[in-house]
Amino acid sequence: MKAIAVSAFKAAPEVMDLPQPQLRPGTVLVRVAAAGINPFDWKLADGILDGHMPHQFPLIMGVEGAGTVMETGEGVTRFKKGDKIYGIFFHSPAGEGSYAEYAIVPEDAAINHAPTSIPLETAAGAGNAGMTGLQLLEKLGLQKGQTLLVIGATGGVGSFVVQLAALQGLQVIATVSSEEGATRMQELGAATTINYKQAPVVEQVKQAFPEGIDGLIDVISNKADFEAAVGLVKQGGAALTTAFVADKHFLQERQIHGGNFETKGTPASLAQLTQLIDKGQIKVPLDNIISPEETGGAIAQSRAARSKGKTVIKF
């Protein structure tokens, strides 16, 4: 089968011809329609979990995908042959990823039946970012009418956060880098857009919201920039970062709750996301569908933080 893999930690990803994975008890064999690209994919290939879990090489990359169940292993009850599924395929050993024509996934992984209103290729880009958006807002705990600044709004996670926050009645302030981005964020529900290329975000937000904001979700900033943005949040407000740059003491001193955030993928979160998609309440912000041969370039863009929106690899 065709797969995108690395031969060693930090090696360049290559399109390889590898054996189809063998079904094990408690797993399903999936014919992958598409795999979503996430920064964690290349971090895993660089060895971020080396010493923490078993790895196998060639290491097939990819933690997220969508496809059709071809076979079910002994003991599987949640899925049957022919089911369309999506979500997080990641499991131990690392290296049996979603960047391949076929993948095996444990039945108890964060996977669920795919939305019926969108193609599998689109669903492949929804699971990780969508669950992250849902859980970020749940953790933030803002109320209808309150203000939320989203830094990194035009990316995959940010685009879900903007939509979900607007759906909850929050006043969303979204950072953008262009008029095109501003238009897209407004269409997704942002009340205000801030073009960070025109002036520093903190300065612009202070001017527009002199009394401060109620919440902050930041998916891209370094420690200094995150702390500068936290300065915009009112006492008693909330601030979360997915970049793991928050200092809990810094937040506590300012009477702001939140901090570093990590998604906990679950079938229940996926079911909630599926319902929102199939009801037409949110759109999957898919920007690029690429071939396996284009994956190396897309990963390089992700490494350089130059990727825009969500990209999936179609198989």
UniProtKB/TrEMBL annotation:
One Gene Ontology molecular-function label: oxidoreductase activity, acting on NAD(P)H
Pfam family of the protein (one): ADH_N
UniProt keyword annotations, A-Z: NADP, Oxidoreductase
Residue stretches in coiled coil: none
Tagged with keyword Transmembrane helix: no
Xref: CDD domains: MDR_like_2
Protein name listed in UniProt: NADP-dependent oxidoreductase
Organism in which the protein naturally occurs: Chitinophaga agrisoli
Annotated Gene3D superfamilies: Medium-chain alcohol dehydrogenases, catalytic domain, NAD(P)-binding Rossmann-like Domain
SMART domains: PKS_ER
Chain ranges of the Enoyl reductase (ER) domain: 11-313
Stretch forming the signal peptide: none
Lineage top rank: taxon: Bacteria
